[in-house]
Amino acid sequence: MREAWEIFGAGPADAERGVLLLPGGANAARSFDLVMGDEALAGVRLVATTLPGMAGAPLVGDASIPALARQACQVAKEHGCDVVVGFSHGATVAMEMLLSGEFQGPVVLLGISLTTADEAAFFRGVVRASEKVGSWPMALLLRGLPLMARSSKTPDAHKRDLIQDLKANRAGDSVRTCSKYLDYIDADRDYAGLLAASGRPVWVVHAEKGDGGLTDAERATLEAAPNVTLVTIPGSVFLLPDEAPRQTAAAIAAAVSQAA
Questions:
Q1: What tens digit of pLDDT does each residue of 58-99 get?
Q2: Is-above-0.90 flag for pTM?
Q3: Rounded distance, CA 213 to CA 207, Å?
Q4: 27-31: which pairs have CB atoms within 8 A and are 24 or more residues apart?
Q5: Structure confidence by residue, pLDDT tens digits, 187-215
């Protein structure tokens, strides 16, 4: 039976620095394999984990963002990780790790949505409809994800793994995890302001198009924060770790350089 927190590792076991990688919704740990193979991260211990309920991994217990963040902090501690990187849903978990005070190192937030205004209206509609009428709207959404992945700008071998992982998702689990995710970003909290006030090194990485975005107010807050580095990847990119691994690895390497 698969484990709820699957581990996919790379790099020397005795490396001075370790990085925990949290994939996006519906994705598995190996979605980071192109990033993990980038030369910018040579000599760094890299630990990617599949979040519970994603890509067919078991979903047990509390699926809320704070609960996932507490568990992810334990994984980071067990594997000696100094930096946490998250993409999309995983970025929200990484942010909560930092804001909770349980993780003290640098964080890299890839394609994060800080409020529902940043998240796609279609996705929000599917999740909320599934809460009311059953999981069939989510099942239809999941059925379309492999089709989207086939058009992604990523090597064929990686694309096959990505599609296989997307097909492994279960609609019921996805509704549970996505509902808790939307509840979290819909809360009356100024996440941009909290990141700025944390004083911890934070990288926020987005593409010009495709992976969500930031409101003008959020961007202004983050740009004014001395502890926050905003990175904009040119062009249209939906799956940052899969389609922009070099730029993603460069941001992670910069964060590693700031680890105490």
A1: 998 899 999 999 999 999 999 999 999 999 999 999 999 999
A2: yes
A3: 8
A4: 27/54, 27/55, 27/87, 27/162, 27/165, 27/166, 28/54, 28/55, 28/56, 28/57, 28/165, 28/168, 30/161, 30/165, 31/87, 31/161, 31/162, 31/165, 31/239, 31/241, 31/242
A5: 989 999 999 999 999 999 999 887 778 89
